Amino acid sequence: MMIILSRIHPLLLAAMLAWLAAAGVGCEEMSLSWGLHERSVAPKRPVDRPITVNQLARRLDLTVIQPGPDIVRLQNRANTVTIFADPYGSAYVNGDRVPSGGRIELAGPSLMVPATLVDNIRNAMHTEAPPPRPTPKPDPLSGRRWLGTVVLDAGHGGKDPGAMGAGGDREADIVLGVTREAATMLQHRGIKVLLTRDDDTFVELDDRVSFAGRHRPDLFVSIHVDAAGNTQARGYTVYVPRRAAEDSPSEQAGERIARGLERVVAVSRGVRRHAKNLRVLEKTSVPAVLVELGFITNAGECRLLLRREYQARLAGALVGGIEAWLKQR
Length: 329
Ligand SMILES: [Zn+2]
Description:
- The chain is α/β, with parallel strands linked by helices.
- The protein has 11 helices and 14 strands.
């Protein structure tokens, strides 16, 4: 039966079935009249007694949202079922027609449907809820109130690869990966974010500083990866400007970011003031922090730093610290 039916065009088959139903020819007669071998005929089913739409809804765990009389709509989290009163039976699951198995008609106040419709609908329903919609990105022009504005400064780029790992891995690429992840997360948390670079281009240190000066963010965060002759050195460091007072915004933001990073990075080198003059920190007039996320010269830490999941975890740690600081101010 299946072999023969599958060779018939679906539209032609639908027309034939409609004609046969109108002519009062049952399924069994139809099969036999096509001369199929006895064994291929499905065993005779018990008579299909009609049930009410409410019974159908209970069996399928659906809620009736439009009770009729001529059109009934039922729903669960993942599906919408529509049933029309119609002598040929019309039932749709999520817009796709399903075989009704017989007449669908009003009997007094209730719409009656064939009991086989329960299985036909069940077979067509989605078993899982549709995937959640992605969180829309806040539109900077929509007048939304931001929690704050942050400039993320991915170190190096272009002709300046930054520190290099033993395998030729570039600091510039790692920090760009972390920066992009962090930028997306900040936006989703209602924090306006501006980037000094969002691709592999070279940006002068002074241009990074003047970028921050033009946009006057609440915080400037420069993102780097460390290097040392000692290949055992590992862990993150958070630098604040040398001029920053003990309780200054830079110091407080640095402490918050360090608290985030210590949940992800095994070794903490704490919040420090650099022995040398780090230009982006010292010349920036807004609160500023420079993070070294780990050592590219440490083989184990370098392997971690190259992994997308680890970069995302580092980004999450940075964002958690930034958000906590913006909220505590
Ligand atoms: Zn660097």
